[in-house]
Amino acid sequence: MLRFHFTAEDLTRVRVATEPHALWEIAVSLHRLQTREGRWAYAHWFRTARASLRRTGLERTVKTFLLPLFPRAGYFPDFLTPPEGTQGLDAGLEAVLATPNERVVREVEALTRAVGAPAWVRRLAERDMREQLVGALRAYHRAVIAPHEQRIQECLHAERARHAHTLFHSGTEGVLTGLGPTIRWRPPVLEIDPYPDHRDVHLDGRGLLLIPSYFCWHAPVALADPGLPPVLLYPLHHLPATPPHADSPPLDILLGPTRAAILRASETGSTTTEAARRAGVTPTTASHHTAVLRDAGLITSHRHANTVLHTLTPLGAALLRTGPDDH
Questions:
Q1: Domains plus CATH for the chain?
Q2: Which of 83, 189, 250, 303 has the fewest beta carbons under 10 Å from its own?
């Protein structure tokens, strides 16, 4: 069991990552390749990932270079998932390169003790070997994660909207209560059970960063070193299956593709900028279309400071759920 011990100050410092953590997603997607657990939920991704790895010649690199560093059961080095990963892949990989050699040595030795890592892993303390690792991680991300980034973003935005709703109605403790079936909030302790080892992490005013993950399946993951800034990676509530609205020509015909895309974005709560990104238009154009959808009674818009959040009305939800060609 893993237990996070909160103080009153820690409850005010709970944060939720606003963007996917590129390196954590690499780590847990490699875990998905090592087990059949949850395979049904990732069936589409698994098929396309394996085909992409074959096509790009990365199968051997993944098998001999990456999988030994990210074993599914037990420990893998914390420096491979730095906090800078929430700023994007490039920032995360730069942080991996900049890791102090003594820390790399310490964590590689821990990996060797835990799972018996191959001898070459010790060379990661050398800059040129870490550059090879960064190149392999970048190539892997480009081959099997980047093609699914839109879906990952959609799921993360839905989770963020869910947390915002819970925070408004139930506060931080409501957010902690609703993280998932293996996570229990028993004030002032957040318990994760089952967990590979028994550990108590005292936050002591540092707060906790919650990182929703697309590829994390069932079991949350935390950093092994309790001295690092505390994080908890946990599975998104929305199963990463094939997008439910991947193709909806009748809706596109009725509303036009841009307004249909904005309506779908509003299903989980969307700002004008997010709706514009989803529809592939400028924020100014998206604002025009949200006004039309709002006047038609399909969405409602609420301003929070400098941000406008668009959500579906019951009419808009019914249209999206049934499709205009249903009776």
A1: 2-17+150-235 (no CATH), 22-148 (no CATH), 249-322 (1.10.10.10)
A2: 303
The Cα 162–Cα 147 span in angstroms is: 25
Q: Taking the model in full, what pTM does it have?
A: 0.75
Q: Exposure of 73 by Cβ count < 10 A (0-12 exposed, 13-18 middle, 19+ buried)? A: exposed
Gap between the Cα atoms of 241 and 151, Å rounded: 9
Q: Write the pLDDT tens digit of every residue in 39-93.
A: 888 888 999 999 999 999 999 999 999 999 999 877 999 999 999 998 999 999 9
Amino acid letter for position 92 = G
Give dist(CA 325, CA 323) in Å, integer: 6
Single-letter amino acid, residue 72: R
Task: Give the whole-angstrom CA distance, residue 36 versus residue 293.
Answer: 43
pLDDT tens sequence across 93-120: 999 999 999 999 999 999 999 988 899 9
Token duo for residue 219: 């079991």
**DSSP character for 239?**
-
Q: Which of 29, 13, 72, 27 has its CA nearest to residue 240?
A: 29
DSSP state of 281: S
- Dihedral of CA 172/178/183/189: which sign? positive
Strand 189-192 with 307-312, pairing: unpaired
> Who contacts 203 (Cβ-Cβ below 8 Å, separation ≥6)?
4, 5, 6, 7, 10, 230
Q: What does each C-alpha distance from 229 to 82, 115, 202, 321 come to in angstroms?
A: 10, 25, 11, 42
